[in-house]
Amino acid sequence: MGRYVIRRLLWTVLVVLVVTLLTFVVFYVMPPGNPSVRFAGKQPTPELIAQVEKQLGLDRSLPEQYAHFLRRLFLGDGTECPLVYRPLCSIESVENFVVLDTGGCATGVSGCGWPGLGMSFDSRTAVRQELIERTPRTLSLIFGAAVIWLVVGVSIGVISALKRRTIWDRLAMGFALFGISAPVFWLGLVALWIFTVKLPFSDSLGTGYVEFGNDPVGWFTHLILPWTVLALLYAAFYARMTRGNLIDTMGEDYIRTARAKGLPERRVIFKHGLRASLTPIVTMFGLDVALLVGGAVITETVFNIQGLGNYAVQSAVSADLPAMTGVVVIVAFAVAFMNLVVDIVYAYLDPRVRYS
């Protein structure tokens, strides 16, 4: 087991490295123009562009730039934390500023450290600090919704599989059809209209995000609607998948053998049938959770949750290359890590899978 986990960890590191290489090529090599011009602001002088290129390491060769990118990513910004250019700042009123040749001045960026993800072209703040602030919001949204859709989806799927061609089966599949068909943004707006406008307890609900450490009750009440809306779509998929897998599994020979041995039906269903039918669900669950790290854009927008998805859209619209790179790296790590977890859980659930 230990050797298996180590091999999977090494493979995860390799995948992240490949993704960083592709990200670097797509964002820094393929786009036309000089990224330093985007960083230097409006109507920069040639001297300022040259100085920004030197600060960002863009005056080096492409292999050297990628090696510098990797070193900062895994070792942190350190003393090479980039400088903020502020053409209008006053050297007399601000401490620890560095005078530039152009007559402006610059100061170190707060929030730099490990991992070194550079500095936003727009906000002139460390991307790492921005991700640290936004990641808990997205993770709170994802894992809360994941618990709901996993419990609700699997439960409905089991009931539907065991009660085939009954009213319960029809209701379950009707729920699944509604969940798959209804757009997330429509569900979100309808939920806001019903629970924050029409119902008498609307004061206990709200949009936005509240820190769990500051107000656990407020954290829960502000996220219960986004959790439910986001979970409804996935619960529908999981219900249909669980139903189909469990129906197929319950017709296997080893299920009939277990019943012939006199095992209780509950044990046959949950220990032998459901356990084997959940392996595809585990794979889906891991990928869904990982991809939502940067993909819950609509839900975050409707409920005003300033998470990673919202940050990714803003960065793409403004062509903020370091911010986009940071989001891509985080999502790639999340996908690789969840694949590792899925492989381990899959091997536990299915005895036919070997760690070797």
Walk me through this protein's architecture.
The protein is mainly α and 356 residues long. It folds into two domains: 35-75 and 78-111, no CATH class; 129-349, MetI-like fold. The protein is 67% helix and 3% strand. It is built from 14 helices and three strands. The protein has helices at residues 2-29, 35-40, 46-56, 62-75, 127-162, 167-181, 184-198, 216-249, 253-260, 265-277, 279-291, 297-302, 308-318, 321-349; strands at residues 83-86, 98-99, 105-108. It has a three-stranded antiparallel sheet, with no helix packed on it. Strand 2 and strand 3 form a beta hairpin. The longest helix is centred in the middle third of the chain and has 36 residues, at 127-162. The radius of gyration is 25 Å and the shape is globular.
